[in-house]
Amino acid sequence: MNPSMLSRKTLHELPMTVHGGQAWKIGGIEDYSHNLNPFGPPDDIKDIISSSIEGIDHYPDDNSTELKEAISKRFHVGMENIIIGAGSSDIIRMFPNTFIEDGETVIIPSPSFAEYTHQCRIVGARVFTQDLESKDDFHMDFDSLKSKIDDNVKAIYICNPNNPTGRIERREDILDLVEYCGDKGTFVFLDETLLELVPEHKNISCIGYVDRYPNLLVAGSLTKSFAIPGIRIGFGFSNPETIGELNKVRMTWNVGQIEQKVATELIRNRMGHVEKAAALMASEARWMYQQLTDIGLPIRMTDSYFFFDSMRPLGMDGHQFVERMLKNNIMVRDCASFGMRFTDYVRFCVKDRIRNERFVEAARNALR
């Protein structure tokens, strides 16, 4: 018996997704392939985790009440507007399992975070892409997107800042799209997981508008902002009715007690750590852009804190550049997994000045 033949037909040709952040498998490598807070978790993270152990002989609060209270105060929304997940990836899984029927249509920008497509295909959705173009600096063409929306489109995905391009869309443009989609009966799934690490995030985020627009769901997490991918905490914001439907597919006890307590402490008392990092990273992004363009690396200035650019002007593809950087103990992301259009693209983040100076020197060596 071949077990794969017994799985759902939608899974038979579904590939596994590929993500960055793999340098931990290789000793002595500085990992620029992920987009975590480069300053790491707060210095006292071990103490916070240790103090969260008491009570693990009980089941966790399935409603995550204390954590929701902290999130509600931080983001100025009601507790009834919040759902908690094991990372934003859990919210990304819940959404199509709640709202997308087999055969329904979704529109997803390309390139963007691969999990959107993966989770939609698991439930049998018809996935159409909205190509983001180099000539537009990989910004979304909202007019073109609107022209593709009809009564058959169940949902549209937006990642802001977009992963992997680093581009940020204006709040006004996103809300205009949300309103347009509302008239068509179309959901907008807005992923703001990376936004807290942008200094102007409060002027960009749409979390405060979830009660105004019932077709808007905003996802976030602590993974990137606190550099704690090993502690799975994510959250979704929407109107209470949408949250109620999502809770029907949420796994019971999906977030453990330790995660809840750690996240509550971080949100209540450690957000200054994230805000300081965001300011430093914005400054370092400008410095890296100047340094790298001076040595001939063909990059464009990012809207956020990671770069996404083609190595074709250097006569090499992304994999070749990755290999050259690895010889200098630096890992960058080969973006071929985002599709054939991006085999010559790489993505890399910014870190602190000392490590960024090493990156510039490694890039200089790679160009020789």
Describe this structure in words.
The protein is of the alpha/beta class. The protein has 2 domains: 3-42 and 272-366, Aspartate Aminotransferase, domain 1, CATH 3.90.1150.10; 45-270, Aspartate Aminotransferase, domain 2 (3-Layer(aba) Sandwich). Helices cover 34% and strands 15% of the residues. It is built from 11 helices and 12 strands. The protein has helices at residues 45-50, 65-75, 88-99, 114-122, 142-147, 171-184, 240-247, 257-269, 271-294, 318-326, 353-366, and strands spanning 30-31, 82-85, 105-110, 126-131, 153-159, 187-191, 216-221, 234-237, 306-310, 330-331, 333-334, 345-349. The strands form 3 sheets. It has a 7-stranded mixed beta sheet with strand order 2-8-7-6-5-3-4, with helices on both faces. It has a 3-stranded antiparallel beta sheet with strand order 9-12-11, covered by helices on one side. The protein starts with 29 loop residues before the first strand and ends with a helix. The mean pLDDT is 94.
What would you give as the CATH superfamily of the largest domain? Type I PLP-dependent aspartate aminotransferase-like (Major domain)
Q: How does the major sheet shape up?
A: 7 strands, mixed
Element order: H for helix, E for strand: EHHEHEHEHEHEEEHHHEHEEEH
CATH architecture of the largest domain: 3-Layer(aba) Sandwich
Instruction: Examine the coordinates and then state which fold CATH places here, giving the name of the CATH topology of the largest domain.
Output: Aspartate Aminotransferase, domain 2
Distance between the termini: 54 Å
The proportion of residues forming helix, as a percent range, comes to: 25-40%
The coarse silhouette is globular
Mean pLDDT: 94
Strand order of the largest sheet: 2-8-7-6-5-3-4
> Total helix count?
11
Low-confidence stretches: none
Number of strands: 12
Instruction: Quickly count the domains.
Output: 2
- What is the CA-based Rg, rounded? 21 Å
Assigned CATH class of the largest domain: Alpha Beta
Structural class by secondary-structure content? alpha/beta
Work out the strand percent.
5-15%
